[in-house]
Write a structure and sequence with these properties.
The structure is a single chain. Helix 2 packs across helix 3. This protein has 9 helices and 17 strands. The strands form 5 sheets. A 4-stranded antiparallel sheet has the order 1-2-3-4. By secondary structure, the chain is α+β, with helices and mostly antiparallel strands.
């Protein structure tokens, strides 16, 4: 038996590698939970603490570093490092009492809700746990899809849990609404929830495969750093001409929404081909192959960035994104082909002495080459 446990009489062993209980700090008992990974040492223990104790730990990563460096060989070694860190920081405990509405997420979770979360984690096991925030009754779980990609699911217990479903958040292209109450699972309610999340990941495999092929073969302008929730890709098909493809997460093999960006003399033929050739769409082919066949174009590869001129920034404000909008108006002169935000171009043309207006359309000229340009009232 670990003799050091005499210093922490309120800390009890609840499984082979897990301890739950209270540690006295600043004259108050604080709830903690310490679990050792099945394939790790106590130096790699997962630590969950009460809200007030979490507030006293100003730098959680620094505490984890201290525990690792100490090479703890027992649970008391981990607790010793925790106590020493908190006392050394000189943090003083603050009491907060706040009534929580029945169907809201607790600003500071009750002890009962924190205890319930710990019990639920015992059922599902601590292997998929990435982080625990007892003060918010929140846990982040992880699982891998069939491609080996790791995904995370944030679960927050509400005051009405388990009568009502917990709040869930994940980087998915469509909302994840789990069935509640879930079917019985050996891992308890959280285990069943994680299983449903795994099924949702498999449902999106076709979408992610289509997007991965586009990322591999095309020069992608947006998003610059794709995440699993992004179902949009803006690909380059020519000098200052691009197509924004938005795939339907529920029907990823169907014709996506297409938005053409570039000079009118280059995008007008693409619109015509889409209208005329849409019936040729073949769902047995990839989205990329279909797009190229229907539009009769070849999307430029990533290596084309070195040889093809493409202006991303607005020629007026010199930024790419402006309140979420990208430069979508392009000068029709092929030698110029500067791009502009509609708002920027509107403000510029409106200030020209020779500006003309007809209903909601403003007539002016390009600030670089004086080619006639029009813009509608934003």
């Amino acid at each position: 038996m670990d003799r050091g446990m005499e210093r922490y009489p309120l800390l009890c062993l609840d499984s082979t590698d897990s301890y739950t209980g209270y540690v006295t700090l600043f004259g108050e008992d604080e709830l903690i939970r310490i679990s050792r990974p099945s394939d790790g040492s106590w130096a790699d223990a997962v630590l969950a603490v009460s809200p007030t104790l979490a507030a006293a730990i100003s730098e959680p990563e620094a505490l984890r570093t201290c525990i690792k460096r100490s090479k703890c060989t027992s649970v008391t070694g981990v607790v010793d490092e925790l106590v020493e860190y908190v006392q050394r920081s000189g943090a003083q405990r603050q009491h907060q009492h706040q009534q929580v509405p029945d169907n809201s997420i607790a600003a500071t979770a009750t002890i009962e809700l924190q205890t319930l979360l710990v019990q639920e984690l015992d059922e599902v096991g601590w292997a998929p746990v990435r982080s625990v925030h007892l003060d918010r009754a929140t846990v982040v779980l992880s699982t891998s899809d069939s491609r080996g990609v790791v995904h995370q699911l944030e679960v927050t217990l509400t005051a009405a849990y388990p009568t009502t479903a917990p709040k869930v958040a994940a980087a998915l292209p469509a909302p994840f609404t789990p069935e509640w109450p879930p079917a019985h699972s050996d891992g308890g309610r959280l285990g069943a929830l994680l299983a449903q999340f795994g099924m949702e990941l498999e449902r999106h495999q076709r979408l992610w495969s289509e997007l991965a092929l586009i990322d591999e073969r095309c020069w992608v302008l947006e998003p610059s750093h794709p995440t699993p929730k992004d179902a949009l890709r803006r690909v380059v098909v020519g000098s200052n001409t691009s197509i924004q493809l938005t795939l339907d997460p529920n029907y990823p093999s169907m014709l996506p929404e297409c938005r053409f960006l570039g000079p009118e003399h280059t995008v007008a033929p693409l619109r015509s081909k889409l209208s005329y050739n849409a019936v040729r769409w073949d769902e047995t082919l990839s989205v990329l192959d279909n797009v190229e066949a229907v539009l009769e174009v070849e999307c430029l590869p990533p290596t084309a960035q070195q040889s093809v001129d493409f202006s991303l920034e607005c020629g007026i404000c010199y930024s790419y994104q402006l309140e979420g909008a990208i430069p979508e108006r392009v000068c029709e002169d092929r030698r110029c082909a500067r791009a502009f935000h509609s708002v920027c171009l509107y403000q510029y043309i409106k200030g020209l002495p020779e500006m003309r207006q007809s209903f909601g359309t403003y007539f002016g000229s390009c600030p670089y080459c004086s080619t006639p340009l029009t813009v509608k009232l934003p």
